[in-house]
Amino acid sequence: MDEFNERLSKYDLSETQLSLIRDIRRRGKNKVAAQNCRKRKLDQILSLADEVKQMRERKQRLLHERQVLYTERHRIRTKFSQLYKHIFQSLRDPEGNPYSQYEWSLQQTGDGSVVLVPRGNQTILDQAEPASRKPHNP
């Protein structure tokens, strides 16, 4: 602004002329500032629109992945149920009677062994007494 005033002082201008020149300069600067502001705002809107698009795509991918996982979980549960029923059809007590899957449960120990435990004794196997477990020997 000082440089602008220095240049104006070189000319013999009336106060009205100086006021008009300053007004024109102020309007020009304001116009450029408004254009810059609109451009920044548009850039920000475009950036947010791109971010929204990416989020929607990510949401679709996650929804698809969730559906795939639900399907896989259902398949695994069905397979588990079939295996569980098959094992209980094959298991027999010492008298040759089948174990009831409603009274007994199969559990896997930390070392990977499968044991038959009464449903009333379903505690964490690591804490259960080894004598209360019946090892499954296929």
UniProtKB/TrEMBL annotation:
InterPro entries: bZIP, bZIP_Maf, bZIP_sf, NFE2-like, TF_DNA-bd_sf. Keywords: Activator, Coiled coil, DNA-binding, Nucleus, Transcription, Transcription regulation. GO terms for molecular function: DNA-binding transcription factor activity, RNA polymerase II-specific; RNA polymerase II cis-regulatory region sequence-specific DNA binding. CDD domains: bZIP_CNC. SUPFAM superfamilies: A DNA-binding domain in eukaryotic transcription factors, Leucine zipper domain. Residues 20-83 form the BZIP domain. Pfam families: bZIP_Maf (PF03131). PROSITE patterns: BZIP (PS50217), BZIP_BASIC (PS00036). Residues 38-72 form a coiled coil. It comes from the Eukaryota. The keyword Nucleus applies. SMART domains: BRLZ. GO terms for cellular component: nucleus. This is Segmentation protein cap'n'collar.
